[in-house]
Amino acid sequence: MKTTLIKQLQPHLIAIGIFLLISFVYFSPALSGKALKQGDIAQWTGMQKEIADYRASHSDEPLWTGSMFSGMPAYQISVLYPSNLVQYVNKLMWLWMPNPINLLFLAMLGFYLLMISFKADFRIAIAGALLMLFVLYFVSIRAGHNTKVHAIALIPLIFAGVLMAYRGNGY
Questions:
Q1: I need a surface site. Which of 24, 92, 103, 133 has the fewest CB within 10 A?
Q2: Quick one: 37 exposed, middle or buried, by C-beta within 10 A (0-12, 13-18, 19+)?
Q3: What predicted TM-score, i.e. pTM, was given to this entire model?
């Protein structure tokens, strides 16, 4: 029985290994502390400065900033929610990998699982996941749209979950 299970899991373990290898090799500078120059992240740093300064001098969280568009809610820029338990789920999904390795690995894994839930051959699913990697990198990661990439990475997992639930095959 164990050998049957290992044979069933082997293509998926190979896929995960490929995704990890590509993510870590392609973004190996992130392992030494280097970061991509992302334009929107640089702008965000300036936008959230007023919020960070308030946070450093007060014990509560600012919910409004006057530094953008003559004022706007701070949750659109930077608000910390210490009681938010979803942050721990995110860390688990990212396997504590550095950014952008974590986002791209999650995107590839999610797209792979979606393709597998459509009963695609694992080789086709791996190819689709690799295409997802390069589309996300060239379109969004370079610009600094990290939260958008995070949302896009989760969409295939949601679709796969809905598909599995409608099939009602015990997952």
A1: 92
A2: exposed
A3: 0.76
